Amino acid sequence: MAPSRILHGNVMLDRLLSESSRTPGDRAAGMAARLESLDVFRGLVIVTMTLVNYLAGVRHLPAWLYHVPPDQEGYTVVDLVFPGFLFIVGVAIPLALHRRRARGDSMLQMGGHILARSAALLFLGVIMVNQGMFSAEATGMSRSVWFLLAMLCVIVLWNAYPRAATLVQKQLYLGLRLAAGIGLGVLLLLFRGKTAAGEIVWLQHSWWGILGLIGWAYLVSCAAFLIFRGQSLALLGVLGLMIALYTGGRHGALDWLGPVQNFVNVGAVFGTTAANVMMGILVGSTFVGPDAAGGHRARLRFFLLFAVGLYVAGTLFRPLHGINKNAATEAYALVSGAWCVLGFLVVYLLMDVLNIRRWATGLRLVGQNALLAFILPGVVSNLCGVLGIQKILWPFASGWLGALNAVGLTGFIVFLTWIATRTGVRLKL
Fold first, then answer.
1. Would you say the pTM of this structure is higher than 0.85?
2. Number of domains in the chain
3. Which parts of the chain register pLDDT below 50?
């Protein structure tokens, strides 16, 4: 499987997502076994994101352990975490759609799933970004209580309950979901926030939050994948258009959109943010369909060439608007994408090529329950707030002792994720 075949093969979606001579169940199982790296890389990103978020509250650490300030150009390893999450979302898209097609889902059914998942991510994103403006006085309860109850409702509502269940169990699961849905609805009706000007308001979408940005990028990238039927050359062209969309927006080409830009920054969200997802799609497309027949060597060769190409492109774009995470510049998307591809290459080489897997057991588990791992830090923090013991989380908040404190909290989140997964709590949108 040469890179040219990956990039230039005219592969229709029906072929890309077609069944092989094996049964759909056999093929799905084989794919899962082959792509241990998918869950491991996702777990690595989630664990790193958790650690980075905790480190943000620790004072007096080296600059490379923090995000580059919004008004400065450049990046640290911390600034690569969010693009890594976007990238791995993209890697999973061709595989997920393949499995759905293999079990008989129609194009309409796949589209409905994509819309529902995107809407859920946008919804959760808006909820989480409103924590800062929450008004306990206007809402009638403390912020810790409201968000703890909201996240518990989310966990119950979107938990992946066992399919092999008795009728009584299914009725119980349905009852739990209905109760969680009603509870979340009541909490949303009660929510009140306070603006900087002192105005009492309901939920605001000042920005979409990490989950919301993922939701938008996932939606537009999946749409492109389906529209162009998985053709790698066409998807590479879409990647280029996404980069161009951002550049055009910076130079006034999107001004005609007016209020739409206030609702969602088209150039940054549908452009460079979605571009990181599209990079993942191009990588993930090498694991399904006819292009997967080339084997490990050809796939690794493509990953390396793709990473080099992205890095060179990012370097060329850097003089235009620099590398800036907050501005989601072209160079930032391209350079971070290059590092993501290289990171995935290493994990794929270890896990799926060399079969060196023992080191990644914990990361794989976190990657299989990524959404729960993402919201658990908030659950823990708000629970401690309700109990009045928040200080117990941070006996040290400065220097290297503070960094060790952050590492310990991250390990605790991994442990909780392991416990939850073993007991059947696994979030799936």
1. yes
2. 1
3. 1-33
